[in-house]
From TrEMBL:
The keyword Repeat does not apply. GO terms for molecular function: alpha-1,2-mannosyltransferase activity. Belongs to the glycosyltransferase 15 family. This is Glycosyltransferase family 15 protein. GO terms for cellular component: Golgi apparatus; membrane.
Length: 356
């Protein structure tokens, strides 16, 4: 009896089984593959955003902090985490003058922050505390300024020199701090600043899309007691810089004291407008232009302005934007931000979402 040939059956088996095995191996390799950088990805977490595309700008939230105000700083940071909707998990930079210099102090503060907030940041897989950076500032009194209050007799002696250093820092020095060299925008908060409700937009996105250089919530006045000599300083600078004087005189939002005093009042008795700049958003490159830097240099060359007369960063920010910006085109009042600071009174305006 003839034995049936097995060749057709074996051929059929190889035809079906071999491709199936190869397909199975391919799927196994595909789903078991781990890219070599996956294990170290967490090291690059500060640079991973919630969007696939590279952001068209960089940003940071900045504070000037003291360890003695740590409790209110925790409250402020919690409000940022809860209510500030940012496109990306930008860094939170805590400038300090030595209070947070030691690693154990930083670790204790971050542990308290994690305990208070917990979980990831808004719109991010990162923990909020992973965004916090500590940056030390080395503050020294300028040459020519006495080192004792008795010799200098400064305005606001009870807060000298710390508050006066702060005014000088926010008025001029912050724009050239190395940590902010590659930052497009910063948003300033004070340790006693709070967001009270969710914002209906990302304020950095507003600044970018509207092409603004300065964003603010409101405008007030600084009292004559802390602006002595400032009006005359501004007048002298404008007089020696015709382009600045021309720009101010053409502005509909700038008024010299002589415009409303008829020369009958001492300019030192006239208050100067100032932003409530314990909250502000600044486009840094606009404050680094040569003509603006020249104005800052002029201020720094007269250190008595900050350290004796306590000229504040609020009126100087107002003066700087008036001197060098088109106030209608370059600045924006940021509406709908429910914000608290003990020394501010801000009239609310309607919040309009960027993308209704």
């Amino acid at each position: 009896m003839a034995i049936p040939s097995l060749v057709p059956q074996c051929t059929l088996t190889r035809t079906v089984v071999v491709p199936f095995v190869l397909l199975l191996i391919s799927f196994t390799l595909l789903f078991s593959f781990h890219p070599p950088f996956k294990a170290t990805l967490s090291k690059f977490a500060p640079f991973i955003t919630s969007h696939a595309t590279h952001p068209p700008y960089t940003a940071a939230v900045v504070y000037l902090v003291r360890l003695s105000h740590a409790d209110e700083l925790l409250e402020s940071l919690a409000s940022v985490n809860a209510f500030l909707p940012l496109r990306d998990p930008w860094p939170i930079i805590l400038f300090h003058t030595g209070d947070f210099d030691d690693t154990p102090v930083q670790d204790d503060f971050l542990a308290s922050l994690r305990k208070k907030i917990g979980g990831p940041s808004n719109n991010s897989i990162m923990d909020f505390s992973d965004r916090v950076e500590f940056v030390k500032l080395d503050w020294v009194l300028p040459e020519g300024i006495p080192h004792t209050k008795e010799e200098l007799d400064p305005v606001s002696p009870s807060s000298w020199p710390g508050y006066h250093h702060m005014c000088a820092f926010y008025s001029t020095k912050i724009f050239f701090n190395p940590r902010l060299r590659d930052v497009t925008y910063y948003l300033r908060m004070d340790t006693d600043s709070l967001f009270l409700e969710p914002l209906c937009y990302d304020p950095f996105e507003v600044m970018h899309l509207h092409q603004r250089s300065y964003g603010y919530l409101g405008i007030g006045n600084d009292a004559p007691q802390v602006t002595k000599g400032l009006w005359n300083f501004i007048r002298d600078y404008a007089g020696s810089h015709p382009e600045v004087e021309s720009h101010l005189n053409a502005s509909t939002t700038w008024k010299w004291p002589s415009n409303f005093t008829n020369g009958e009042v001492d300019w030192d008795d006239v208050p100067i407008h100032g932003y409530y700049n314990n909250f502000e958003i600044v486009k840094l490159e606009e404050f680094r232009k040569p003509e603006v830097e020249e104005w800052f240099y002029h201020l720094v060359q007269y250190p008595e302005g900050f350290y004796k007369w306590r000229w504040g960063d609020a009126p100087l920010r107002w003066v700087t934007t008036q001197m060098f910006f088109d106030m209608e085109r370059d600045t924006e009042r940021l509406c709908g931000i429910h914000y608290y600071h003990p020394y501010n009174y801000i009239e609310q305006c309607e919040c309009v979402p960027l993308h209704p």
